[in-house]
C-alpha cells in the first residue's frame, strides 16, 4: 500500500457560527464529495459569541484528509478547523447506553462484565438492564461484543467528543 492509498482515521474539530443550516452545510460538504463520516457530534460551546463546535471522525488517504480540512476552512460560517489527530495529544470519549435482556446466570454475567468495564446500570427491571458506558470507541465496541451473547437488545451511542490536551483551546484560538 502506497502512502497515497493508506487510509487514516482523523478527529477534526470545527468551530462554526451557531446558526440554522450550519450543520447541514458542513455535512453537505462531506456527502457532496463522497467523504465518509464515522462519528459526528455538535453542540453550542459559547453562547456570547454564538459559536458551536462540530467534532467529526472521518477517514481517508492523507490527501483526502487535507482536502476535507481545506474545504471546511473555506466555508464562510467556519471560524477554525483543527485536526486533533495531528495537533498533538487529545482526549477522546464516547458514551453509549446498552440494553441487555436476561435472567439467571446471564444476568449475573452481564453485571460482572459491566463492573470490569466500569459501566453503570442506569435502569434495571427484573428482565433487563440499561448500562451507561463511557470511554474510547474501542472500549465501547468491546463491551457491546461481550453483551451480544448475554442478550443485547439495543444500543444508542453519542459519537466521539474530543478535546486537545494542554492549556490552549479552540475558543481562544481565533
TrEMBL record:
SUPFAM superfamilies: ACT-like. One of its GO terms (molecular function) is acetolactate synthase activity. It catalyses: 2 pyruvate + H(+) = (2S)-2-acetolactate + CO2. The keyword Transferase applies. Pathway: Amino-acid biosynthesis; L-isoleucine biosynthesis; L-isoleucine from 2-oxobutanoate: step 1/4; Amino-acid biosynthesis; L-valine biosynthesis; L-valine from pyruvate: step 1/4. It holds the Pfam family ALS_ss_C. Catalyzes the conversion of 2 pyruvate molecules into acetolactate in the first common step of the biosynthetic pathway of the branched-amino acids such as leucine, isoleucine, and valine. Belongs to the acetolactate synthase small subunit family. This is Acetolactate synthase small subunit.
Amino acid at each position: 500500500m502506497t502512502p497515497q492509498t493508506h487510509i487514516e482515521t482523523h478527529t477534526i474539530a470545527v468551530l462554526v457560527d451557531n446558526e440554522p443550516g450550519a450543520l447541514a452545510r458542513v455535512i453537505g460538504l462531506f456527502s457532496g464529495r463522497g467523504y465518509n463520516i464515522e462519528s459526528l457530534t455538535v453542540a453550542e460551546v459559547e453562547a456570547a459569541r454564538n459559536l458551536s463546535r462540530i467534532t467529526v471522525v472521518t477517514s481517508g488517504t492523507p490527501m483526502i484528509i487535507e482536502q476535507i480540512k481545506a474545504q471546511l476552512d473555506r466555508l464562510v460560517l467556519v471560524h477554525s478547523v483543527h485536526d486533533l489527530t495531528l495537533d498533538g495529544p487529545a482526549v477522546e470519549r464516547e458514551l453509549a447506553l446498552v440494553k441487555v435482556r436476561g435472567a439467571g446466570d446471564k444476568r449475573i454475567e452481564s453485571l460482572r462484565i459491566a463492573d470490569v468495564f466500569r459501566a453503570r446500570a442506569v435502569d434495571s427491571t427484573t428482565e433487563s438492564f440499561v448500562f451507561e458506558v463511557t470511554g474510547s470507541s474501542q472500549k465501547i465496541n468491546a463491551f457491546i461484543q461481550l453483551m451480544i451473547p448475554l442478550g443485547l437488545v439495543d444500543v444508542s451511542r453519542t459519537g466521539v467528543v474530543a478535546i486537545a490536551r494542554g492549556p490552549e483551546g479552540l475558543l481562544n484560538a481565533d
